[in-house]
Design goal:
The chain has a single domain, classed as Rossmann fold, CATH 3.40.50. It is 52% helix and 7% strand. The chain is built from 16 helices and seven strands. It has a five-stranded parallel sheet. Strands 4-5 form a two-stranded antiparallel ribbon. Strand 4 and strand 5 form a beta hairpin. It starts with a helix and ends in a 10-residue tail after the last helix.
């Protein structure tokens, strides 16, 4: 055996040992499989919207519906696999407009309203949806094939979690202390967001029960809230224009027979108090329903939902998501007569 082959085999052995050691360490630390929630995964979900109406419910909005809609519970109750098109930290408007303009979409649509994002006129809440839409339109066959290969590998290896365990995220999550007059981006705990094969976000039970971890995320929401207060509030003209866009989109969808429901998912603690003060229900939520002549489901109208706990004030844990999703299915079937693949 020549020296070059020996060197190659030694190097290969070291790589294999390193990979398996890193994987073993992560699994022993309690981490489980989590998928990359990039634009590739979103585009994959977007391609599923053309199934028969009784088998297709699309969810758009921000992170709350990604956490609060439990895919397994939805599947058990309706016989459908939910099509999750929401984006974290984002407004649903770009995706709503895209679906309204797609004459081939004739399914069912649930629109999550998180007021501080839904009524935002900054560029950030539009960034992820617009990137996903552009990628989906330009996606090549090679990129699609790469996505399927990547997902297959991610379903077996914890260390392939690109949001947490590749080099750049590991560097980004280093605990850099704050310094005077230097802004450091807040770091979310790793177990605050995991992504399953349905593109559902969820927090681990370990995170939800850790008061220090949940307090860290509460502080991040407070920081973001304080930063938002420094921005000028939207003008009446901007808000009126937004309602006009939403109404136009809803009218297009209704004309094709699309069933639509707006939802306001649970929040608690300081988040809920702030939201009620800045976005009073009658002025914002009710106006959406009145303007679009569409039904809505506001969590405070259902006693069993008002007792749910959001560990970091803004998103439900897995147990809460199961309760919320079961109630959502009941409301859709009993109050709005929605038809599903599985009728009970």
């Amino acid at each position: 055996m020549d020296n070059q082959l020996k060197a190659f085999l030694c190097c290969l052995l070291l790589v294999i040992i390193g990979i398996f050691s890193w994987e073993f360490y992560l699994r022993k630390s309690g981490y489980t499989i989590s998928y990359d929630d990039g634009k590739e995964f979103w585009a994959h979900q977007r391609r599923k919207i053309y199934q028969p109406k009784e088998e297709t419910t699309v969810f758009i909005g921000s992170s709350r519906i990604k956490y609060d809609l439990d895919a397994e519970t939805w599947l058990q109750e309706t016989g459908e696999i939910p099509i999750q098109l929401a984006h974290v930290g984002s407004t649903p408007l770009p995706v709503l407009q895209d679906l309204a303009d797609d004459i081939n979409f004739k399914g069912k649509l649930i629109i999550d309203v998180t007021e501080k994002l839904f009524f935002s006129f900054r560029s950030n809440p539009y960034k992820r949806p617009n990137e996903g839409l552009q990628y989906q339109k330009d996606e090549t066959y090679a990129q699609k094939a790469s996505f399927y290969i990547d997902q297959a590998l991610q379903s077996y290896w914890v260390f392939l979690d690109k949001e947490n365990f590749t080099l750049n995220p590991l560097i980004d999550k280093l605990p850099i202390p704050r310094r005077k007059d230097v802004f450091v981006l807040p770091v979310f705990p790793r177990e605050f967001e995991r992504i399953n094969a349905y593109r559902q976000s969820f927090m681990t039970d370990r995170f939800a029960s850790d008061s220090l971890e949940t307090k860290a995320v509460q502080d991040i929401w407070k920081l973001y809230g304080d930063m938002a207060k420094k921005k000028p509030p939207p003008t009446e003209h901007q808000i009126d224009s937004l309602y006009g866009i939403v109404k136009s989109c809803v009218d297009k969808l209704k004309s094709r027979g699309v069933d639509i429901l707006f939802t306001r998912t649970p929040s608690t603690g300081d988040e809920l108090l702030e939201e009620k003060m800045v976005f009073p229900r009658e002025k914002f939520w009710q106006r959406i329903l009145d303007t679009t002549q569409t039904k809505g489901m506001y969590f405070e109208d259902y006693p069993e939902l008002t007792t749910l706990r959001c560990p970091e004030y803004s998103h439900l844990d897995l147990s809460g998501a199961k309760v919320y999703t079961k109630k959502l299915c009941d409301v859709l079937k009993q109050e709005h007569a929605w038809k599903f693949k599985k009728q009970i």
